[in-house]
Amino acid sequence: MNNDLKLSIIIVSYNTKNFLKDCLESIFQKIKKTSFEVLVVDNGSVDKSEEMVEKEFSLVRVIKNKENVGFAKANNQGIKEAKGEYIFLLNPDTLILDDNINELIDFFDSQQEIGIIGPKVLNADYSFQRQCKRGWPTFWNSFCYVSGLWKIFNKTPWQKKVFGGYFLLDKNENEISEVQQISGSAMIVRKKVFEQVGLLDENYFLYWEDSDFCFRVQEKNWKIYYYPFFRVLHYGGKGGTQRQPLKNLWYFHRGLFIFYRRYLAPNSFFLINIFYYLLIGFMFLFKLFINLFRKEKIIGSVKPKAEINS
What we know:
This protein has 310 residues and is an alpha/beta fold. The chain contains 11 helices and 9 strands.
């Protein structure tokens, strides 16, 4: 490892040329006080993303795949090549908003028990993207999320803790806090964690590999923190998921099934597990049906869009 290189930023791109360009520009504009490298892993794009990067960002290393090998596997390719002390996994449909990532790294350096830090992630309209600090998708947390109970019962600390467990509503979005998992759209990992825990699980072609990794990291007694003083904007759903949306919808629900069966089902009553699997199947069929009538398909949750001023 190059001891002078603090940060390796890895971006997996799949036909996201314009978003990728904006993302890279924001990186080089905002990160000034931390030594870093950028690796773009291209998953067989046909929109000339590779050519754009090589022409306009000469400092960026490009790893070229002939086909789409999946999000987890492509990230692993970048992780194996990374030389930094910290690995920043970043989606291509993101923008770095702040120039103080050095302060996040300083916090990381001072807390040797922390294995992963997630920044504050905002939607395109600059509202808070709740997926950047989450609890586990247990049956109760998932039920409260899908049913909307978390939106109704969120007034008192007790209600936030009981009904808002998936989004950890009891933890202030403007305060540093320990969490169970953060979003893979912007995840900063101590490199030695990968060396101890292993890489992302490639059984997840797309989605839920971040949850799986966070679970394994905590099993090894590393802590995961949410850090709100460094912000990333995430458009959501623009990182290539719309090119084969129905196939990606399957990957999303398949990934949730794998994660739940592997980590949460063994400690749950068997009838609860049956209901959970039925819930996953119902949500898959429901989204499959409504997507037949939508131009822009829904995979996970709907992200707010930026308002366009006329």
